[in-house]
Amino acid sequence: MMSTKPRVLQIGRLLPWLEERLAAAHDLHRLADEADPQAFLAARGAEFVGLVTSAGGSGADAALIDALPSLRVISSFGVGLDKIDLAAAARRGIAVGYTPDVLNDCVADLAMALLLDVARRTPEADRYVRAGRWGVAGAPAFPLGRRVSGARLGIVGLGRIGRTIARRALGFDMAIRYHSRRPVADAPWPHEPSLVALAEWADFLVVIAAGGAGTRHLVDGAVLGALGPEGFLVNVSRGSVVDEAALVHALVERRIAGAALDVFEHEPQVPAALRALDNVVLLPHIASATRETRQAMGQRVLDNLALFFAEGRLVTAAPLD
Ligand code: NAP
Ligand code: 8YV
Q: Where is the D-isomer specific 2-hydroxyacid dehydrogenase catalytic domain (predicted)?
């Protein structure tokens, strides 16, 4: 018997509880279960009215959207929209739901953790203790770190998460300035229209701008040069925002002091040159990955679909213009 539930396609794997709830509420099919996804889409793509995907994973490109001619709604697990072809969705009148705000705190927490880790060299110190090098007679003492309290923080992108990072930095008595295309009307911190000038001023440059074509390689060799040999880079936005080749050169040649990265240009590939360095901290894109935040993100994915299928609208709709 045909299901009366909306037919929804899931791209990539999600949390087990979320997959269960999606399957309970919809006539769900997982593309990851198909041996030949392209052949499946060609044969059965027209069945689906809904699509579930993730921001840091597969997204939804134009080819996928084209392969789903009956599609009416996309519900994405995450806030980044760089992997979703919003123009293709808009042309077809497809609604796009995402999960802003519910992850601000945990992403900002992780940005501060990375900043502290790279400045105070905590991962390196942990490796030093585990290797049994502490207290070894004649061995050099563990090198000194860089003070965080009272330092100058440059934030690239003062959006929902950027502001949340700024509020945390106030607790460390940091001086704050930010760069974005437009000044934020009610922000109490100075706006710096030139990213190079912000990098020159900052001790720590934290990148939390949106990803996508408009910000590709925003942090380039010139910005890293301006950050200088005493400056640290933290990236929790998208790997594409930083010119990774230029970053590797700057780190290897000690033209910046260090970097802490949650995201990479070609995830999950991390350049071997980065893995070989002590003055970098490398994480596998986990900024939103706490039980509490992933629960809230998953709930929003479900709520967006439920409201769309009940009333034709979303709890949190991505801007499509
Ligand atoms: P948001 O509120 O939309 O903020 C985005 C910021 O980027 C705005 O301040 C925007 O300011 C700035 N921006 C956009 N284009 C720019 C450009 N060309 N030059 C300079 N600044 C630019 O987004 P959010 O919720 O804070 O999230 C930010 C990003 O974090 C997401 O898009 C996502 O990629 C990333 N993220 C990563 C993780 C993770 O797991 N690592 C988790 C969540 C989010 P203007 O428009 O004025 O330029
Ligand atoms: C991912 C993220 O959604 O929200 C974003 O934009 O990058 C993350 O929260 C998460 O890693 C699942 O892909």
A: 43-314
pLDDT of 164 over the 90 cut: yes
Task: Tell me which residues have their CB closer than 6 angstroms to ligand 1.
Answer: 56, 79-80, 100, 103, 107, 157-162, 180-182, 208-211, 214-215, 218, 236-238, 262-263, 285, 287-288
Q: Which atom of ligand 1 has the smallest separation from the CA of 238?
A: 34
- Give me the residue label for tokens 């044969």: 43
pLDDT per position as a tens digit, 202-236: 999 999 999 999 999 999 999 999 999 999 999 99
The predicted-structure confidence for 288-299, as pLDDT tens digits, reads as follows 999 999 999 999
Q: How far is CA 119 from CA 67, 123, 147, 162, in A?
A: 47, 10, 7, 19
Domain ranges of the chain: 7-100+292-311, 104-282
Is 255 tagged catalytic? no
User: Is 238 designated active site?
Assistant: yes
Judge whether 20 counts as a catalytic residue: no
Is the pLDDT score of 2 beyond 90?
Answer: no
**CB-ligand 2 contact for 55 (6 Å cutoff):** yes
Helix (H) or strand (E) segment spanning residue 21: helix 16-25
CA distances from 19 to 75, 180, 291, 305 (A): 13, 37, 15, 13
